[in-house]
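Shall we go through a protein fold together, starting from nothing but its sequence? Please make up or recall a protein chain and show it to me in full. Go ahead whenever you are ready, and we will take it from there.
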Amino acid sequence: MASDPISPASVLFACRKNAGRSQLSEAIFNSLADPAKAKGVSAGSAPIDKVYDEVPIVLKEVGIVYIERPPQMLTMELTKAATLFITMGCGESCPYVPGLEKEDW
């Protein structure tokens, strides 16, 4: 059987610290999406050292196992690899990428 040449869509969730909102969004999205069709990634314009303690607690409450991943810097490479760019309050510190669909939550 030949493999599908189409890559899954990549949804990039971005906020300032990549320690709360974007981490939650990535985890929830990935728990609901078919990984063959789409994947979520998160990053921050000014990431801090660790994810907020509440993130794994909240995810557990809704039945999602949190896979620990430290906050990461929002880079142009991440935005260029994305199909959809969802920003969450990072304002002017989130890059503009021509041709990339962007939504602000």
Remarks:
- DSSP finds three helices and four strands in the chain.
- The two ends are 40 Å apart (CA to CA).
- The longest strand covers residues 9-15.
- The mean pLDDT is 90.
